[in-house]
Amino acid sequence: MNRSADMQRLSEEILVAYERRIQQLADLRHATHQHIRHASTTRQQQAAQQAAERAAYTRQLRTTTQQQQAAQQAARSAQAQALHAELDGYVTALRADTAAQVQDYAAQHADMAATQADTLHAYVIALRADTAVQVQDYQTQRNAMAASEREQRATARRELAQAVQSMRAELQAEHRQIWLSWRVVEPLPARATAFEGEATLTSVNAILDDADQFARQAAARTARATRHTPSRVDDAAEPYA
User: Fold this and answer.
1) Fewer CB near the terminus (10 Å): N or C of the chain?
2) What gap in Å lies between CA 241 and CA 132, rounded to an integer?
3) DSSP 228
């Protein structure tokens, strides 16, 4: 009996405790909902206030900006007008100055052209005279050199001819000596000996003639090369020759 009563009492206490806890939770839930509604209302009010403040600030900023832009535009317009007027004055003065300078330059150029023409004419006359003297000196030197070269070539040809004649005489004498020695050692018929001697002499004369002709050709080539060799003085003197 006592145990059953205790259990029942304990059950009732537990039930009362649960009900009390449930009531506390309900109260807490109600308070939480109220706090949330209050916070939401507060946030909405703050958002509306901030939106109104931003709109007012935007309107004020737009108005201030428009005023500043209008003032800047007016200042720029005034500055542009002043600069345009200053530029017009500068251009007018520059045109006048340029016209005066052009007139002065034209007058100076005319004087300089006349002076330069006279100086150039005198220089051309002096240059022509100097060039004529130089050409005359060059022609004199060239003629002297040509005469000297002709004399040297003639001397060389005479010396070469003398050498050829001397060699020919020596060869003829040597051939004569050999021919006489052959006749002494081994007598031959007179006709055969004369024929062989003439043939040998003819060969020697042909060799000497070839040497003489080669010397003449070499001298002619040397003369042509000397005569046709251009020079700077020739090129400079040709227009005045």
Assistant:
1) N
2) 8
3) S
Entry pTM: 0.29
Give the CB-side neighbour count of residue 57, counting CA atoms within 13 A: 6
Give residue 226's pLDDT. 56
Q: Number of C-alpha atoms within 13 angstroms, CB side, residue 77?
A: 6
Structure tokens at 86: 């200053």
Report pLDDT for 119.
Answer: 87
Amino acid found at 151: E
Residue-level pLDDT at 21: 86
Question: How far apart are the C-alpha atoms of 46 and 200, rounded to whole Å?
Answer: 149
User: Where are the chain's structural domains?
Assistant: 106-240
How many Å is the Cα radius of gyration of the chain? Answer: 68
Give residue 227's identity as a one-letter amino acid code.
R
User: If DSSP codes are grouped into helix, strand and coil, which group holds residue 191?
Assistant: helix
Contact assessment for residue 201 and residue 172, using Cβ atoms and an 8 Å cutoff: yes
Please report the pLDDT score of residue 195 as a whole number.
43
**pLDDT less than 70: residues of the chain:** 1-2, 182-212, 214-215, 218-219, 221-241
Res 221: pLDDT = 67
Burial grade of 204 (CB within 10 A; 0-12, 13-18, 19 or more): middle
- Cα–Cα distance between 206 and 213 in angstroms, integer? 10
